[in-house]
Amino acid sequence: MAIFSGNQPNNKPDTPTAAPSPPPTRRRTDGVPLSIVAQDMTVIGDMETEGVVKIEGKVRGSIKGASQVFVAEGARVEGDIQVREAVIGGEVHGGIHAQERVELQPTAVVHGDIATPRIAILEGGRLTGQVKMDSKATSQPTPPSAPRKSQPSSPSSTPMGALVSPQ
Question: Is the pTM of this model over 0.90?
């Protein structure tokens, strides 16, 4: 019982103990705030932030200005999303406008239009709406393309993964 009584086997006098250290901080160290809508939570109204938003519950309203929005599997957003980057694993009933990219994970269901310069739709992800890939939304200038001859487009004339823009 020497451990609990303070009597050390080497008979050294007890030293004062330091105050317990505070619990570790749970804030992000990169300075970007993180907001979470928990699984059992419903937010009614518009949300606006410059940070990262993770939706695990329900939001009935638009989400604006966030650097990133994550809609987790089982979560639901009923409103428009206007962000820099959106990763969707749950349900969105509204439009998505992302300045950089949108990713639809295999469990994603989107009922609305998407406007973004880059999009990834993983196998199983569902979209009911239109996709507009607007290169003007990016902050990086795109190099001018060489003039092309007008040819009818066919699956064999367009390489896989190439973006086709109207002329």
Answer: no
